[in-house]
Amino acid sequence: MLLQQNWVSPHWAWQSLGKSFLLFVFLMLQTADLEARRGHQFVWKTGHWGRCVGDCGSGGVRSRAVWCTHVEGWTAYHANCDQKDKPESQRRCFKVCDWHLELFEWEVLGWERCGLVPFAGGEVGAGACVTAQHGLQHRSVRCLQKLNRTIVTNEICEYFTPQPPAEQACLVPCPRDCVVSEFSSWSECGTGCAKSLQHRMRAVIAPPLYGGAPCPNLTESRACGAPACPLGEEEHTYSLRVGSWGECQLPHPKDVDLAGRTMQDLSLDSGERSTSGLQGYKPHHRPREVEIGYQTRQVRCVRSDGKNAALSLCMQDPVPLTFKSCVIAKDCETSEWSAWSACSRTCGWGDLAPGFRSRHRGVRSVAVGTGKPCPELEEREACSVGGKELLQPCPRFAWRTSEWKACQVSLLLDQEDPRYQKHVDLCGGGIQTREVYCVQITVELGMHRLKEVTRPVDGKLCLGPAPSASQLCNVPCPAECVVSAWSVWGPCLHENCQDHHGGRGFRMRQRQVIVDPVGTLADCPHLIESIPCEDPVCYEWIVSEGICVTDHGKCGPGNRILKAVCKNKKGEEVSHHLCSELPRPEVVACEIPCATDCVISEWSPWSPCSHSCSSKNAEGSQSRSRSILALPAEGGKACPPDRALQEHRACNDHPCVHFFWETSPWSPCSEDVLVTALNATINWSGEATCGVGIQTRKVFCMKSSSGQVTPKRCPESIRPETVRPCLLLCKKDCVVTPFSEWTRCPTACQSGNATAVKQSRYRIIIQDAAHGGQACPDTLYEERECEDIPVCPVYRWKTHRWSHCVLVPDSVRQGVPGHNEACGHGLQSRAVTCLSEYDDSADVGDCMRWAGSMPSLVQECLIPCKDDCTFSPWSKFTACSFDCESTRSRRRSLTGYIEESCTVPCPFDCKLSDWSSWSPCSSSCGPGVKVRYRWLKEKPYNGGRPCPKLDLKNQVYEAVPCYSECNQYSWVVEPWSPCKINSEQNSLHCGEGIQTRKVRCVSTAEEHGGETVPNALCNQAEIPDMMQKCSLYCPSECAVSDWGQWSTCPQVCDPNIMQTRTRQVLRSSVNTKPCPEESQMKPCILNQNCFQYQYNLTGWSGCQLGANATCGRGERHRLLSCRRSDGATVSTQLCQRLRLEKPVQTRSRCVVACAVDCQLSAWSAWSQCSHTCGAGGQMVRGRSVVLRAAGEGRPCPEQLTQHRSCPVKPCYSWLLGPWSPCRLQGGQCGDGLQVRNLTCVVHDASDSATSKPVENALCGQLPSKESVLQLPCSVPCPGDCHLTEWSEWSSCELTCINGRSFETTGRQSRSRAFIVQSPENQESCSGQAMETRPCSGGKCYDYLWKTSLWRDNVRTVWCQRSDGMNVTGGCALRTKPAEVRHCSPPCRKPFSYCTQRGVCGCERGYTEIMRSNGFLDYCMKVPGLEDKKADVKTIAGKNKPVNSKMHDIFKGWSIQPFNPDGKLKMWVYGVSAGGFLIIVFLIFTSYLMCKKTKQHQSTPPQQKPLTLAYDGDIDM
User: Fold this and answer.
1) Could you read off the pLDDT of 763-790 as tens digits, one per residue?
2) What predicted TM-score, i.e. pTM, was given to this entire model?
3) d(CA 783, CA 761)
4) Cα angle: 755, vertex 759, 762; to 5 degrees
5) Are 1331 and 1309 in contact (CB under 8 A)?
6) In which order are the strands placed within the sheet that holds 66-70?
7) CA 98 to each of CA 95, 107, 157, 159, 816: distance values in angstroms, whole numbers, following the listed order
């Protein structure tokens, strides 16, 4: 029981565990299945990559969206998709920025050839092509980094410009078949009876193109028709055929000559024989070992039909060699590759710019015999720094400039006339320059911030055009101060009216500044002058008179009430108490004449003062007068005497000296202790300044006639200031760039005796010092000698002694009859070692690099046979005798220049004379013109500066407006004389009379004030009256005053408005006679008594420059005048009084274009010679345009480069001779060698150069590519097939479409054909060769079918090129004309045949009966052509077709009424119409004749009936 329990428990446990395990496995499988199904149901999806964002360069990042989707399309959580397969959502990229534009560019290569485009159904058939087929051509478009031309991703360049198209549609011409020439004539047959062939050949004219048919056979052969030879008497010739030399091999060990003559071990320096038996032939791996072996060839006798014959039939003397010595070929051995060098890329833009690295290997041993030559000894490959190591970004370069230097007019004027350099005060247009240099810009690593290194670098590193180094500028011309005329002297005034104690005062006059000074040290002249005076007043009473009030009655004495107003010196009314010190006038006596009193006029105004000042010799005076108007009556008050009618008084009694303040120029602005304290709080100009300083000047009181006087003589109130504040100019230190890098010393080694090489560096002044700043350094250029320049190593070849002559082994030699003796031609070798400068052993590669080509290792030798005539070696030269001339020679080569005379014509500018002086102003009143001239002295030529536009007199003139004041001269009148009465008619001496006055013309100019001048200078239209009527009233008559002034008309004239003038009654009449009128009126009529005024502007003058300027900025002017409405120009004061609106702009700025000559840089250094030697070399130098020509300056020359011949050096070169004929070395046919010579020659490299052979050492190393001096060749034996020589090159032909060239280059071809000499070999001989090469200057050719005349319905058809050459191929087969003519439909009717015209006709004796469609219906017998009694059927049976040419010609003349299309011919209608008209005409004529003869007609006699008899059976 226990046992059972023990057994059951495990069983139960196993069952329970098994169930659990199965359940676990089932759940796991379900889970895996769910996972798998879920994995198949959910997939990752990605969006497009976005733009690259982030920092410039390789620090950019681009992103894309990644999401999980169900297969049905809805989006799910990321957890549902397999995380291992999740695509990346971010990727590093190269962020392109705008400044990368200078670094990258598209590289676009040329278009490739146009290729056909296959259609869906396959290639286009040749039959479908008419002129051309559609094709597609491609080209390479890549984005490159400019600096090292490396390829980068296209996205970078696409950021700036779209990618150029990489493919385009094109046209491919139709397939062109191969074109060959006509066959030559057949070759001649032999004269014997042997079977032979004759052949003919043709050459390829144009190769097949664009899928055209290949070339046909170029040869044709046929058997000659010679009679068969009798049996056994065939004629044959025999030729000795030599085979090609076999491979060079070492002799078999049993053939070794123990004496060591077969092979030399060159590892032994002494050249001793190796006598070590077989060991001497073990392969040696040491360098410099040459093994000599042997090679053999076959010699056979060949019959003329190609079959072998017994050698004895070809035996000749000497027998050709079948063995010779040779050198065992050994390939060049090189050392192992060196380690790769460091990557050349030390900077980069991200990972876009791979660099390069290289490795080298040396030569251990050179190739011997026909061994492989040495391979390339250097290998390069692209490289990039591994890992994610960031490189320093590559530098960028940009142009920078210094500040503009001062404007220099002399630079511009030197182009015109160097004499201008003497002028100091030059102004106007000039040129200013600046330095332009290139600097490096680097990007700080990781931050991509630009950091500039201002050190100048080579300008070639900067891309794009350099900024301009010069420009036009302007130096302002100094303008002198312009002042107005002096005002009149003012009253005598106190200096200070507030403190006017003291008896001294001043009278002053003033002037104003019209034009401020520019650019001159001198300031404006003084503007105020003063004169000391006594009894000065600050205020005065200004009196105006009232009416006269009599004391008693209406006439008699009385008083005139005065009205006084107190005014200051400015004319302003002030308080009365200021004039309290002065007596105030209140009344003045006056008198109104009574009826019987004498009447006197009012005093006239005071005349102008006769002098402006008083001196010892002249004093000023002025006068006034009054006149008697009416005589007194009896008992009335008498008239005063004549002297009482005039008054005189002194005027301008001040002395003629005046005083003024004079100042020195302002001192420079300097610091001041007092002002410095203010600088902290005061900002003088609102801008950032360097502080406020002070300027000082001295002030002096000057007397006009004697110079400086005591300051008391000048009024203190107007004393100029002596100190003023000013802006301190900031100090400007000199700024220079750091020194550039030292120029590189040469990296290549220099020979030991070469001159010392120097390196230099420089720096550039960016800003000059100014205003006391730090001065610029003196040293801007430094130079030093290069250190540690490697010296080229010295290596040399050492040659050892030649070995013994090595022959072919005896076993080989003894097999040939006549060659038992060990003698003849062999080879000998030597060792060549490389030694250093110190005679140490060196590597072979070092000598090959530094010591030139290796000396030869093997040479031919000869061991004479017994029967040969031999010479001993040369003995030494005997010593020279003393009595004979000994000579020695030396060599030199020609070097120097070939001088070519040339003339560079100098340009000569147009030369004009100096300006003439200005002409006087054309107008004496108002605006006018003044002119000056210059005239032509020399015309320009050779590209000189052109002349300005000249007039007919070859002059150029300049006109400027001028203005003459209208009141420069004025009429001055003296008082009227007393009224003179004609006493003869009037005893009372009263009534009407005449009075006169003097009129003179005086100058109003200040310096000539009041001077009488000729009357012609004053305006004659305005001359005052010198005589007028007057009235002297009689006693007891009413007396009136003179007429007053006419009242003014309004500014706008109106006839309805009247102008009036009045006069007063001075004395009433005694009787009742009325007084004359007291007022007069007249209408205001335009241009009679009423005038309007307006300002008038002249046109702008030319641009006026400063005195010392020739171009640049200037001013133009226009003048202002006052014009009256009647056209007269009057004084501008009249317009000013009316206060008319004055035009504002009377001057404006302008520019006279500078005539700038083209300015060129200095010539560059001469370039290297285009030829390393010879006479045709050219050196070039150039210059660039620094400043373009402007205005009328000399234009830039077209030629900016110059060429000149180089020094002539002799050219030494290897000259290859022509290939020799094929040398068979004793045979008559078979394999041989072609050889050519290589000679060192000297020449001058010209086309017509003659070459002279010289020593080989002068040419140096042998040319590797041209060192093939022998080639295998063959001479065909009789019966062999062989290729002919190459045909001549065909003419150059272009591929054309419709007569227009499709390509720029053409093609020409040549060919060689196989010749079959024996009929037995005809089947086995095949093959031909063709070569095509491009050519220029080709032509377009057309190919047209040509035909001969038909002959028996057959003609010849051939293809002809447009130049007249008959060819095969080239013409389209589909357009080929027929060669045999057939009638359609065939001629199957009896007695019909096909005619020359291709239609069916009938035989002779038959006529054609045609159908309506133009085809033959049947042939009808023509009656009467044979014996009537003959049987027609028999005759018809005997008639055979007559195909003679004559019959055909006459057959063509048979009447054919129908066209081939079955329609009637036109002539049938014409014949029918003509016949109808003839019939009508005959009927009408018969009718007329019958009508006339009817009456006379009698009955005719009866006649017998006509019987027709016909014997025959032909149907009628």
Assistant:
1) 999 889 988 888 999 999 999 988 888 8
2) 0.53
3) 7
4) 150
5) yes
6) 42-46, 66-70, 75-76
7) 10, 19, 11, 9, 87
